[in-house]
UniProtKB/TrEMBL annotation:
Subcellular location: Cell outer membrane
Organism: Pinibacter aurantiacus
Entry keyword set: Cell outer membrane, Membrane, Signal
Superkingdom to which the source organism belongs: Bacteria
Protein's recorded name: RagB/SusD family nutrient uptake outer membrane protein
Gene Ontology CC annotations of this record: cell outer membrane
Domain (SusD-like N-terminal) ranges: 104-240
InterPro entries hit by this protein: SusD-like_N, SusD_RagB_dom
Residue ranges annotated for the RagB/SusD domain, each copy included: 399-636
Length: 636
């Protein structure tokens, strides 16, 4: 074999590793060494450099990325939904969600390793792309493509490091590829210093990347890669976290920096810039379509550009979203996340977001919807019954006529992507920063919140529009509720509550409300305790006498539009005194408390400890390899 052929084989092998994953690497930040001889060929042309970049994108996906562990395990429990209701479980995923995790929990260790693998791959691109000849002497199009790739690598590294910092606090941060680092056993770096570096990096990335509608002008296809909007939105998100409350690794009280408004100003300006460019990103008119006809149809290029940043599961990337989560079909799947009854009733009766986010039924015999009691309502944004795409094959051979996978219970990967940032985030972040910076809500802040709330009600109010408070505290509490309603089941709530220093309060007050439900009887429906940290929602969320004791449904095959069919015949919001189910109907004891609600009381965040649980432990296997990963986070 000639020397040239040998080099080609080595380069091809490296590209395969970059794209498919380096998952066999056991050591922290120590993947297989990449020689300069190899990188000379990988970063020799546009095509190979893009493959190297896609290797970093690949670390967003799969079981240990946003395919289920980080999206479906790390982000719970909170005051909206919980992962599982078994308070004596030995399941590692549920233990993590209940804040009973230990440093050897593999549901922490494996995603931790994968985030660092993604950062290492991004580092390879950040280091090598600017050194490519084409970066400086290529055609205008080639230079623009490479600059975009460099910007994407900065965004990818920022996303990986942000995820690590918000979950583990101070962590090692390596800015060069491992092959150019003399000491791989690095100490933990202050998360604030890391955030500051990421804010600088993302500002640079903005100048390197095109807007989403401009990618074709540099010869790139319109796809799910990151663009200028992604860099700006992630910069706003990190700035708000940097300016928010956080837990020291030594434990104790959460605190925020004295100059927190400086970071709110960064977030404000980035959001303002995005809002000022509606041709790039804005709200899609229909909240339901955003999930049913775009996310679950495997089409994230929605015309409004609301999906600013996603962890794309394209090209067969593994994703258990819609399998472990969402509706239960024919007794299989779903049920990974339970909607708390207290959350269900934070929606008013005309808020269309409720029926997108909350599913009080399961599908049996392929087409029949069987109603559930209040204590068995599941998450709905990744529901199996809505998944569709003519080109997506659900079973061996060919797709079904309806392109829906309800009858295929063996399916383990529906390739559903995970939304990282939506334009609704930008509007509500903007409103939050306006309120903080100005000591109260401005007209622009109220307008931004109104746009999100109005879309949630279908574009027009059937009842009286909500009264948005004009005081700083009142407006903030309205925002706390609005973000809860808008982003249920999107892994947002827990981290919002932490940066607001409200997670402990939310857990305790939600548990108190659930306890009141647990003592309910048919003749004694208690008045629910009020929330102190957010607006309390509609009146019927407080006065249980206005809610039905029973619900009734028809256990008959649904119409052809099964995905738009609600099996319940009476209202969730009006009392029902009917004792026996009418002919042809099935009765569900909807409101009654007792053991079902006690299960929630005992289960929700059962191991949560204020001043400890806001961070997860550094994986013990990494501390065994690297003696510099001390101290361990408090309490572990």
């Amino acid at each position: 074999m000639t020397r040239k052929n040998i080099k080609t084989v080595i380069a091809g092998t490296l590209l395969s590793a970059l794209v498919m994953g380096w998952m066999g690497c056991k050591k922290f930040l120590s993947p297989e060494a990449v020689s300069s001889f190899d990188t000379e060929y990988v970063f020799d042309n546009i095509t190979n450099a893009r493959k190297a970049l896609l290797g970093s994108y690949n670390s967003l996906t799969g079981d240990y990325g946003y395919g289920i562990r980080i999206s479906g395990y790390w982000a719970y429990d909170s005051d909206e939904m919980i992962k599982g209701t078994n308070s004596t479980t030995t399941d590692e995923g549920q233990l993590l969600a209940k804040y009973l995790s230990i440093a050897s929990n593999l549901q922490i260790t494996n995603p931790f390793n994968q985030m660092y693998t993604g950062a290492e791959r991004a580092n390879l691109c950040i280091y090598n792309i600017p050194k490519m000849e084409l970066y400086t002497i290529g055609s205008a199009q080639q230079q623009a493509q490479l600059k975009r790739m460099l910007g994407e690598a900065y965004v990818l590294r920022a996303q990986f490091m942000y995820e690590l910092c918000r979950n583990f606090g101070d962590v090692p941060f390596q800015k060069q590829p491992s092959q150019y680092t003399s000491n791989l056993f690095q100490s933990r770096m202050s998360r604030d210093s890391i955030y500051d570096q990421l804010l600088t990096d993302l500002k640079q990335a903005e100048d390197l990347m095109p807007w989403r509608t401009d990618v074709s002008s540099i010869g790139d296809a319109v796809d799910q890669r990151f663009t200028k909007g992604s860099a700006k939105a992630l910069r706003a998100k990190i700035a708000l976290t940097r300016g928010g409350y956080s837990l020291p690794v030594s434990g104790g009280a959460l605190s925020r920096p004295s100059n927190y408004l400086d970071f709110y100003k960064i977030a404000h300006d980035e959001c303002a810039d995005l809002i000022a460019n509606p041709t790039q990103h804005t709200l899609l008119s229909s909240y339901k379509d955003l999930f049913k006809n775009y996310l679950l149809a495997h089409n994230l290029n929605d015309p409004a550009g609301e999906y600013i940043m996603v962890a794309s599961m394209a090209n067969g990337a593994d994703s258990k979203l819609g399998i472990q989560t969402g509706t239960r079909v024919n007794g299989v799947g779903g049920g990974n996340l339970n909607i708390l009854p207290t959350y269900f009733y934070m929606f008013d009766s005309t808020d269309l977001r409720r029926d997108v986010t909350c599913v009080p039924y399961e599908i049996t015999f392929d087409t029949i919807k069987t109603g559930h009691a209040m204590n068995a309502v599941y998450d709905g944004k990744f529901r199996k019954e809505w998944v569709s795409n003519p080109s997506f094959v659900f079973s061996a051979g060919s797709a079904s006529t309806s392109n829906r996978p309800a009858t295929n219970n063996a399916l383990q990967n529906m390739q559903l992507s995970w939304p990282l940032i939506r334009f609704a985030d930008v509007l509500l972040w903007y409103a939050e920063t306006e309120n903080e910076i100005n000591g109260g809500p401005t007209a622009a802040a109220i307008d931004a919140v109104s746009r999100v709330n109005l879309r949630g009600h279908g574009g027009s109010y059937k009842e009286t529009p909500p009264v948005i408070p004009t005081t700083k505290d009142g407006f903030f509490k309205f925002l706390v509720k609005e973000r809860m309603l808008e982003f249920g089941n999107e892994g947002v709530r827990k981290y919002d509550l932490i940066r607001w220093n409200l997670l402990a309060t939310a857990v305790n007050e939600t548990r108190a409300r659930l306890n009141a439900w647990a003592t309910a009887t048919e003749s004694n429906h208690p008045v629910m305790p009020l929330y102190s940290y957010m607006e309390n929602g509609p009146a019927y969320a407080q006065d249980a006498t206005q809610l039905p004791t029973y619900l009734y449904f028809m256990k008959t095959p649904a119409r052809s539009n099964i995905d738009d069919f609600n099996p319940f015949l009476n209202s969730y919001y009006k009392p029902s005194d009917i004792k026996a189910a009418p002919t042809g109907q099935v009765r569900v004891a909807w409101w009654l408390g007792g053991s079902g609600q006690v299960t929630y009381v005992n289960s929700i965040a059962s191991g949560f400890k204020t001043g400890q649980s806001e961070l997860m432990p550094i994986p013990q296997s990494q501390r065994d390899v690297n003696p510099n990963l001390s101290p361990q986070n408090f309490g572990y």
